[in-house]
Amino acid sequence: MKKLLVILFLLLISITAYAGSADAIIKCQSGSGRTHLKLLDQDLSALFTGGELSIDKKSITFDHEDDSGRIISDLKRGVYVIHYYNTKNDITLEFYAVPKTIKKTELDDYSTSYKFNAIIGAGSTDPRDKNKNALDKTIWLDCTLKYRV
Asked: What is the count of structural domains for the chain?
């Protein structure tokens, strides 16, 4: 009986260790629909965990394994910036929300949602370019950020 209680206790501890841990998912699309961006922010704690940029159905992936991404975030004050540079793959992303556009759209006990406009900076890697050259212009996006515990 004691063994069973110990096993149940250990099982409950391991389950609760992951409670409340989830990625905030940011999905963006350009007005033309040619550009799509998906980014992940662990627990809305400004910890970049990856993403993907697609333009004209050509994609590049951003991973966090080498700790290449940095997020500066204060959504209440209208700040959300991601700078990603992977030296191994020579991939860059400059992403920032337009401050006055960040609006909270949903809130309940378990989820948060924001809508905002954002820009991919011209210094970002163009996924259509085989030589990994930078974009020749900024790209404006409409974005949603959703987070659910």
From this structure: 1
Q: Is residue 118 within 8 Å of 81, Cβ to Cβ? A: no
The pLDDT assigned to 124 comes to 96
> CB count, 10 Å around CB of 60?
21
Residue 73 lies in a domain: yes
Domain-embedded: residue 115: yes
Kindly report whether the global pTM for this prediction surpasses the value 0.85: no
SS (H, E, C) 8-61: HHHHHHHHHHCCCCCEEEEEEEECCCCEEEEEEEECCCCCEEEEEEEECCEEEE
pLDDT (tens digit per residue) in 38-78: 999 887 777 888 899 999 999 999 987 666 788 888 888 88
